[in-house]
């Protein structure tokens, strides 16, 4: 595996205002040209036919390069039980990104009080009660609960596609609250997990470059919360647990944007979900993931909003 320094490392520093203007310009172009539909809340958009056409082509191309894994296909709903979510320990590291589901369980009197509050223009969500469900922040979460116990020799590998939700409203079209990840997850020994992570990076990079995108592979960290999170983030980078595929969506003078990742979880999920290898050790896991909306929007940013006018080589790589 070969990685390089972050793509923006040698770039000239520019102001946040310039970057915000670049983000606003891309957002306006996507909306004005009918690629996205504004739903009235930052980071939430409807997707039109042209978006779906490119999105589907991106996903199909990504699946093709992982066919050799012969992965088990799993698709999960966009919510997960609170009990399973708790075992991932996500709330400890990313409380600011998590979101729960609530429902109304009151009687007629409580309903009348809710309606009265609504009539007065007040917030009425306090009348709802937790439903013991969480919006899924990472599509691979549900798989680990299915693996508690002992894995077969060689471990198991999964093809997982689904909805993710992270509560981080933004007008940056590359940072959505609701989005889709396509992940290829391996659970097995420490050696097989690392091989899965490292072995997929060259092919993923080559694919993204075939789309006409400039790509760098850089060490990265997750957005851990708080002071303790700063230490976790440093450790993650120092131990080279996470790499991101980044591209200059907003130009060379701005920070490059991640559109995919390759992650080594070590024994985090193996310990949390009591998953063991055939030789009795605690299982390790790894995943490689594409942010489908991010790749798609990066293509519109790089090549324009009319796929039929894109370079022939790009359309061939996407089978458009």
What do these coordinates show?
The protein is an alpha+beta fold. The chain contains eleven helices and 14 strands. The protein has a seven-stranded mixed beta sheet. A hairpin with a 6-residue loop joins strand 1 (36-38) and strand 2. The protein is globular. The two termini are 30 Å apart. Mean pLDDT is 94; it is low at 1-14. InterPro entries: aa-tRNA-synth_II, aa-tRNA-synth_II/BPL/LPL.
What best-fitting shape do the alpha-carbon axes yield? Answer: globular
Strand segment tally: 14
Give unreliable regions as ranges: 1-14
Radius of gyration, in Å, reads 21 Å
End-to-end gap: 30 Å
Question: Layout of helices and strands, plus pairs?
Answer:
Elements: H1 16-32, E1 36-38, E2 45-47, H2 49-64, E3 72-75, E4 79-81, H3 82-88, H4 90-93, E5 100-103, H5 108-119, E6 129-135, H6 141-145, E7 149-150, E8 156-165, E9 178-188, H7 190-210, E10 216-219, H8 226-238, E11 242-247, E12 257-266, H9 268-272, E13 275-276, E14 284-291, H10 292-303, H11 312-318
InterPro entries: aa-tRNA-synth_II, aa-tRNA-synth_II/BPL/LPL
Protein name: Seryl-tRNA synthetase
Domain Aminoacyl-transfer RNA synthetases class-II family profile: 162-307
């Amino acid at each position: 595996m070969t990685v390089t320094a972050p793509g923006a490392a040698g770039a000239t520093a520019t102001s946040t205002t310039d970057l915000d203007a670049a983000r606003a310009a891309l957002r306006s172009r996507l909306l004005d040209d009918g690629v996205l539909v504004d739903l009235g809340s930052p980071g939430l958009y409807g997707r039109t036919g042209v978006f779906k056409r490119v999105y589907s082509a991106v996903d199909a191309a990504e699946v093709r390069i992982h066919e050799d894994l012969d992965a088990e296909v799993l698709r999960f709903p966009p919510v997960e039980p609170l009990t399973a979510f708790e075992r991932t320990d996500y709330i400890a590291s990313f409380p600011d990104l998590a979101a729960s589901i609530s429902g109304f369980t009151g009687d007629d009197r409580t309903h009348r009080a809710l309606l009265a509050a609504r009539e007065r223009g007040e917030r009425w969500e306090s009348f709802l009660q937790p439903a013991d469900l969480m919006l899924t922040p990472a599509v691979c979460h549900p798989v680990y609960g299915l693996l508690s116990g002992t894995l077969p020799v060689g471990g198991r590998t999964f093809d997982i596609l689904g909805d993710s939700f992270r509560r981080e409203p933004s007008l940056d079209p590359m940072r959505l609250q609701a989005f889709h990840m396509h992940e290829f997850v391996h659970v097995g020994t420490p050696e097989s997990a690392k091989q899965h992570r490292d072995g997929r990076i060259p092919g993923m990079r080559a694919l993204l470059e075939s789309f006409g995108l400039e790509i760098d592979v850089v060490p990265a960290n997750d957005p851990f919360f708080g002071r303790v999170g700063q230490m976790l983030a440093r450790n993650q980078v120092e131990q080279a647990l996470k790499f991101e595929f980044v591209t200059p969506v907003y130009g060379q003078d701005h920070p490059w944007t991640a559109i995919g990742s390759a992650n080594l979880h070590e024994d985090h999920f193996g310990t949390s979900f009591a998953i063991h290898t055939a030789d009795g050790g605690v299982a390790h896991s790894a995943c490689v993931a594409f942010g489908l909306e991010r790749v798609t929007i990066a293509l519109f940013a790089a090549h324009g909003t009319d796929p039929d006018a894109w370079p022939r080589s790009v359309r061939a790589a996407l089978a458009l």
